[in-house]
Design a protein that fits this description.
Blueprint: H1 2-37, H2 42-52, H3 62-77, E1 81-90, E2 93-103, E3 107-108, E4 132-133, E5 138-146, H4 152-161, E6 169-173, H5 181-188, E7 193-197, H6 200-203, E8 225-226, E9 264-267, H7 269-277, E10 304-312, E11 315-325, E12 330-340, H8 348-370, E13 377-384, H9 387-390, H10 392-400, H11 402-408, E14 409-415, E15 421-427, H12 432-441, H13 451-462, H14 466-474, H15 490-495, E16 500-507, H16 521-527, H17 533-551, H18 560-574, H19 585-611, H20 616-627, E17 650-652, E18 660-662, H21 664-671, H22 675-704
Parallel strand pairs: 4-8, 5-6, 6-7, 7-9, 12-13, 12-14, 14-16
Antiparallel strand pairs: 1-11, 2-3, 2-10, 5-10, 11-13, 15-16, 17-18
Helix pairs in contact: 1-8, 1-17, 2-8, 8-17, 18-19, 19-22, 20-22, 21-22
């Protein structure tokens, strides 16, 4: 009896010591977090934005390389290891651009953005002309047809109107989908050329005062941008699936699946007005009418236009900056944090407002290093080059280091442009609770509330129905969005299965200078994050996430929210119009397996955490399984007709470009009325989810040992 009491007492004492040790570890971690969040300075972010946006710095420019060297040296000055990593990629630049109305009147488009006196950078030398990268070369003259946003449903409407675009040049307005979808769909319908213009209804004077009086796009502002067919694959068009290092095998240009076949050109609404005014034919449907002072017609004709585009198809070197802090305990577990540094022109908002934040985070970590902190896991900071033409730098790096990343990458945290307002977060739903936890401890810079409280208030204010409001109120975590494509997280989540997040502030204030010469320091400091306090908040938020992931004893993956979210995706698909019966029962059964596995894992974590009895060795074994969990959501075969995209839960849509399609194999097959493929993809995704559930079960078992 005495011996049993003695053993019980000894066990209780041991548990108290273990719990006390666990609590001490948590307090120490919180101390480092608080120290970290006190370090970032808005004035430092402002100075980095001013310096980096002072001149144009597109991929392949001398200024772009200079900035890469400047960032490398700054990382080193803060105590990080840093180097440049180069890749040679195909990046076309304009040789000749012509757009003219040849009948019934004559007009030659300016194809140039004028300098604005109030913005000194709008007259900088070295600006890339207004063009769409990876347009096909061509010189065509044909009748013009207005196709609204140029998405598939618009062509269905044209067919009902009796309008055929075969042999025509189409003019589409920016919006409703990614720009590269517009010429892609036009080509599929037989068009010989595509013009894309910015209608003032979408980002010009209809929205508010135009620059320099207000933030919106002026009459001759033009949105540059890539039209590479990135839903097939991003990155260098000539090295799909492998890194474009020097000496790498490369496809011939005509073998590429992502270079367009017809000429494409972006123009301002100042240049679009004479073309649209010359159109006849049917009056455009009401929803198609923009804000120009004309009656919108669809054509074809009598407007005839000539469109000529030729490019310099040259290989350019891009410069990724890769900096690292080696982990003291788990050096082969990597937490990655990135933003791109190349811009179409000066790019104060896109991307410098985000890149400057990453630099300030790295400086703050350098200060912690001086105070004796060392991360358990390796932290890698990346400043990507070549994002604007097609996610070139991040994709080539990820492809080149694919095998190592598959073994070592814990998570990737991305940002791009940053503004002011509320925190916008999207990503892997295994990290949704983690995002909520961090948002609860970071203060909003303008209100006496946490970022989480402000997000919740805004969502409640925007809720359209009582049911929507109740859903927000009754759920402990705010939902994060699913990721499609459009920034540098794409290769990590979609191709390699690395759990990823994309972060940035926005929602307050307007904008209409995207990808134009007016995305400048003058514009940003007048109309966006004018005092850079939201830049500081982003550094605190993303930096806290990076710190927690790097130092967590048990990685903060949660599977309950994931299971609930994927179950919602299945029910969304069930509500899609289906002319044939596609049996979704295997998906529902697989989701239920994930839910049960997630619940069991969650209970095991809570039990161990309450007892304070997770040993480092046990945590290491569990973490090794957690790191691989997102990889289980990949299929080796990839999605139908686009094998590069391997994630079975999230992907950019084939006809949305940036916009996400969840459970894409099934959803898109149903949308395309391909019933046999839909049934086959149900099986693929169900098997994928079952493999994921088994991985979660393995993590639970390792935790219970």
């Amino acid at each position: 009896m005495r011996s049993r009491v003695h053993r019980t007492f000894a066990f209780a004492c041991a548990m108290l010591v273990t719990a006390s040790s666990f609590a001490s570890t948590m307090v120490a971690a919180n101390d480092w977090e608080e120290k970290f969040r006190s370090i970032p300075r808005a004035e430092n972010i402002r100075e980095s934005v001013r310096h980096m946006s002072a001149e144009p710095h597109h991929i392949g420019s001398a200024r772009g390389r200079d900035l890469a060297v400047w960032m490398r040296d700054r990382f080193r000055s803060w105590g990080l290891k840093a180097d440049l990593e180069e890749f040679d990629v195909l990046f076309p630049t304009p040789k000749e651009r012509v757009l003219e109305l040849v009948s019934p009147a004559s007009y030659r488009a300016q194809l140039k953005e004028p300098r604005i006196a109030e913005d000194p950078d709008s007259g900088d030398a070295g600006q890339l002309p207004t063009y769409n990268a990876y347009s096909g070369d061509g010189d065509v003259t044909a009748p013009l047809v207005y196709v609204n946003y140029g998405i598939p449903s618009d062509y269905e409407q044209l067919a009902r109107l009796g309008v055929d675009v075969r042999g025509k040049i189409v003019i589409a307005r920016y919006g409703a989908s990614w720009r590269g979808i517009k010429p892609k769909v036009a080509y599929e319908h037989g068009a010989v050329g595509c013009i894309i213009y910015s209608d003032p209804r979408d980002d010009g004077y209809y929205q508010g005062d135009v620059y320099p009086t207000g933030p919106y796009r002026p009459e001759h502002g033009v949105q540059r941008g890539s039209v590479m067919d990135m839903p097939i694959h991003p990155g260098d068009p000539l090295t799909p699936g492998w890194g474009a290092v020097k000496g790498a095998r490369r496809l011939a240009r005509d073998e590429s699946k992502t270079i367009l076949k017809i000429p494409v050109l972006p123009i301002s609404y100042g240049d679009a007005l004479p073309l649209l005014k010359a159109l006849g034919g049917r009056v455009a449907p009401e929803a198609w009418r923009g804000a120009l002072p004309i009656t919108y017609h669809v054509g074809p004709g009598p407007a005839q236009v000539r469109l000529k585009v030729t490019s310099n198809w040259e290989t350019h070197t891009l410069y990724n900056v890769i900096a690292r802090i080696d982990g003291a305990v788990y050096p082969d577990e990597w937490v990655l944090r990135g933003n791109h540094h190349d811009a179409w022109v000066n790019g104060a908002s896109d991307p410098v407002s985000g890149m400057a934040v990453v630099l300030e985070e790295a400086r703050a970590f350098g200060e912690l290093l001086k105070q004796g902190w060392r991360p358990k896991r390796t932290i890698i900071f990346a400043a990507w080059d070549g994002e604007e033409p097609g996610l070139l730098g991040s994709t080539e790096w990820a492809e080149h280091h694919a095998e190592e990343l598959k073994r070592k990458a814990v998570a990737y945290i991305n940002s791009d442009s940053n503004g002011r307002g509320i925190l916008n977060a999207g990503g892997s739903h295994t990290l949704e609770r983690f995002v909520n936890d961090v948002a609860r401890v970071v203060d909003d810079p303008k209100e006496k509330a946490s970022l989480w409280e402000k997000m919740r208030t805004r969502r409640l204010d925007a809720a359209r129905t009582d049911d929507d409001r109740r859903a927000i109120i009754n759920r402990s975590d705010l939902r994060i969005g699913a990721l499609g494509s459009g920034s540098d997280y794409t290769a990590f989540i979609d191709h390699l299965g690395v759990a990823s997040l994309n972060l940035g502030f926005g929602g307050d204030g307007g904008g209409g200078v995207y990808h134009s010469i007016y995305d400048s320091f003058a514009w940003y400091t007048r109309f966006s994050d004018t005092d850079f306090e939201y830049g500081r908040a982003l550094a605190q938020t993303a930096g806290t996430m990076t710190l927690r992931l790097a130092d967590a004893q048990l990685l903060p993956f949660d599977f309950l929210n994931f299971a609930e979210t994927v179950g919602g995706y299945v029910e969304e698909i069930a509500r899609l119009p289906r002319d044939a019966n596609v049996d979704l029962a295997p998906l529902r059964r697989a989701v239920e397996k994930v839910r049960l596995s997630a619940d069991a894992f969650d209970r095991a974590v809570r039990a161990r955490t309450m007892a304070g009895s997770i040993t480092d060795a046990q945590a290491a074994a569990v973490n090794a399984l957690l790191i691989q969990s997102e990889r289980k959501l990949l299929s080796d075969a990839g999605l139908p007709r686009r094998e590069w995209f391997r994630h079975q839960i999230y992907a950019p849509g084939f006809y949305t470009g940036y916009g996400v399609k969840t459970l894409p194999g099934v959803r898109e097959a149903i949308e395309q009325k391909n019933w046999s493929e839909a049934a086959a993809q149900v099986a693929v995704i169900a098997n994928t989810l079952e493999a994921f559930a088994a991985q979660v079960d393995s993590a639970r078992d390792a935790l219970r040992k």
